[in-house]
Amino acid sequence: MSEIETIQAYYAASLGKDGQITKTQQRILAAALALFAEKSYEEVGTREIADRAGVAEGTLFHNFVNKNGILDAIMQPIMQNILPTMLNTLDQAVLDGDSQTLDAFIVALVTDRVAFAERNQESLAVILSQFFNNEKDRAAVMGMVSPEILAQANVVMDRLKTAGELVDWPNRMILQLLFSTLGGYLVEKVLYPDLNQLDTKQTVRYLSDFLVNGLSPRRMPLHVD
Amino acid sequence: MSEIETIQAYYAASLGKDGQITKTQQRILAAALALFAEKSYEEVGTREIADRAGVAEGTLFHNFVNKNGILDAIMQPIMQNILPTMLNTLDQAVLDGDSQTLDAFIVALVTDRVAFAERNQESLAVILSQFFNNEKDRAAVMGMVSPEILAQANVVMDRLKTAGELVDWPNRMILQLLFSTLGGYLVEKVLYPDLNQLDTKQTVRYLSDFLVNGLSPRRMPLHVD
Amino acid sequence: MSEIETIQAYYAASLGKDGQITKTQQRILAAALALFAEKSYEEVGTREIADRAGVAEGTLFHNFVNKNGILDAIMQPIMQNILPTMLNTLDQAVLDGDSQTLDAFIVALVTDRVAFAERNQESLAVILSQFFNNEKDRAAVMGMVSPEILAQANVVMDRLKTAGELVDWPNRMILQLLFSTLGGYLVEKVLYPDLNQLDTKQTVRYLSDFLVNGLSPRRMPLHVD
Amino acid sequence: MSEIETIQAYYAASLGKDGQITKTQQRILAAALALFAEKSYEEVGTREIADRAGVAEGTLFHNFVNKNGILDAIMQPIMQNILPTMLNTLDQAVLDGDSQTLDAFIVALVTDRVAFAERNQESLAVILSQFFNNEKDRAAVMGMVSPEILAQANVVMDRLKTAGELVDWPNRMILQLLFSTLGGYLVEKVLYPDLNQLDTKQTVRYLSDFLVNGLSPRRMPLHVD
DNA sequence: TATGAATGAGATTTCATTCAT
DNA sequence: GATGAATGAAATCTCATTCAT
């Protein structure tokens, strides 16, 4: 699992010699993740985390610099995965395959991200919550979108446009629509996991279909006055 | 203005004799709104609100039951507007006009909601933040979607489907896609007001076009294996 | 009393409108001073201070930024008095009088500082303790010796040397000896107030006599091999 | 070496079989001494000591009963040396030599103590700091002045007075002036080792000269009204 | 009505010390 | 003997709320 590797890389300082997350750290992170997802970061106390993790309060601070350090340890690995992977997929789909079609690209993207969301519901709930709460975390999330990645994304979109596969709108708008559609799915998944009656395959089909049709070049533009 | 009426209804007890919001209350609400939008409810202290409003801390508690009461006074009016209006629009667009087309409906909806978002950026930022942070506020938002409104929405969508104007997907999925697209716009608008380079008219055009194309009935379905 | 004025000037921010230290602040400072003098800053808890002052713990932080802010409020006024006053005395004694003698100067200086120590035993105990404990407070004390004051002191000493009233040693050494003699008195006074059997007048006489004889120009130098 | 013997006596239990201080103990003491001199006992944590010493935190407690035990191990040897030696010197100077002069006595005393201070700067800084901070350590230091030693000192001073070599003041005052002058030197040496521009020989000369002149019998007393 | 000093429960964090390995 | 993860008591500080003026 790439996420676990990422955590290891990021928190090497506080990990055991062999580069493993310790049992205690796992228990703390698991307890905190569950609580942060249930309530919110601010509403969860360190005492509560320690209790749920079955360790002493001091142990939290032996293993993480801060209460905030625990939050970071939960968010960082996901944040370092979500966007890079997204754009990687995008890259692969277009460069590798013979079929340089919007179809292929979008299906690949949606499939991947939907699977990702399903695997990481709790962490994503925490990240979502922080994203909307805190200018700094928001900046951190946006900071993941490095200029290189953006440039890469632009290249891909420009190619698809040239190939007549993508509607000729500003790239930023296209990205926004892409994110919106995936994000909307994510939000429902994360906040109301129980409501979800459609299976994954079907969901991927709808989202992809919606995006492909929404972003294909137009035969005749809509008129708004 | 429905907002003012709502606040009045909610805080009738503490309003001036003439049933108006007092100057002091206005200053407190304005200060709190600005601060809650900048940071988050939890990160803003009552001291800070009082300072920004230019009143004493105690004055907050003469005018509102609670710190939470201030938040409520900010959220309530918007929450009682946003969804009802949305569905109203939907209703009007379809029932009133001769042109019972997806075009007409979506353009009307998008135009209205985009204008609404532009007028209420700060309040929406607060609501967004609370929505993702606080189970109860989330429930409150979702509670606005009363069964009747949902039923109404379903009627509209079914009609459009029958008229061959709307793709034949589950209504919940269609609603999700609608919300996603509008919500994505909202999020960008609200969190990154400075980034926005497209003017409103153009934005409405793109969003509408995207939705119409994405939700029109298919000639040939996309194949996913 | 110039000390009280100084406190007011320095802590104007946290004082009442009329520039007075409030009753509460007085009680907190008195309690803290007594405790810091008894034990040491580190060994005294905020709970303890609050209890002794008869206020709630939170009240401390309502009136002072910090636990350290309380310490500052105790130390600063003394620190802003002790050295300036010392050198002022020195200045007046030499410049004003006709008798520009070492006698006059030293008697004035010793008299003044001994009286000062007697009035401010507790505060001086706290400052002494901090001076030896903490690089920063030490720097703060030394920071009081502004270049101008030092220059002034040098002028005075040079004049006395020229007048054949002062031994021709490096000024720094002379200052050190002056401080040592006064400081030694201070330490005994502050740490063992009960031991003191000599009255103030007598003490001034001994210290002055010792200094005058020790710092008068030599007839025949001592030989050390 | 009397210091090592003292540590051995005090920590006999935790010493190696051969009664020697172990390498580990040396490293811990060295690290702690440096840190206590830099900051203060209270401000230095056991973690910090362990880090600087290059051992585990637990190791501290295998070698010393306490954090306080480390401090004791640093202070005890000096404390058992400083006063006894001082008074020993005093004794020798007067009893042994033919020249029972104040000169001889003071030069011997100053020379010895200045050399001592130069050798033990760091430890003395720690002791100074503790002396002013901690009632118990202060008592311990003063406890070193046993009645016998005091009696001995009084004998010496009385002899010098009888010989017309020492001013006829109360012995306690004379002792205080002696301590002040040496202490003032010590403080400067210990707190501002870098400021010191005079060499040791010169310093001894000044201090001795100052003391001899200050404490010689007067021809005509100073008049203070 | 408005004030702002006072409150005290509760939050996070530190740190000397223990103990299983 | 050495380790270092775990401990938990205690310390400092925050903050919504109350209440006398």
From TrEMBL, chains A, B, C, D:
It holds the Pfam family TetR_N. Residues 45-64 bind DNA. This is TetR/AcrR family transcriptional regulator. Keywords: DNA-binding. It comes from Lactiplantibacillus nangangensis. The keyword DNA-binding applies. PANTHER family: HTH-TYPE TRANSCRIPTIONAL REGULATOR RUTR (PTHR30055), REGULATORY PROTEIN (PTHR30055:SF222). PROSITE patterns: HTH_TETR_2 (PS50977). Residues 22-82 form the HTH tetR-type domain.
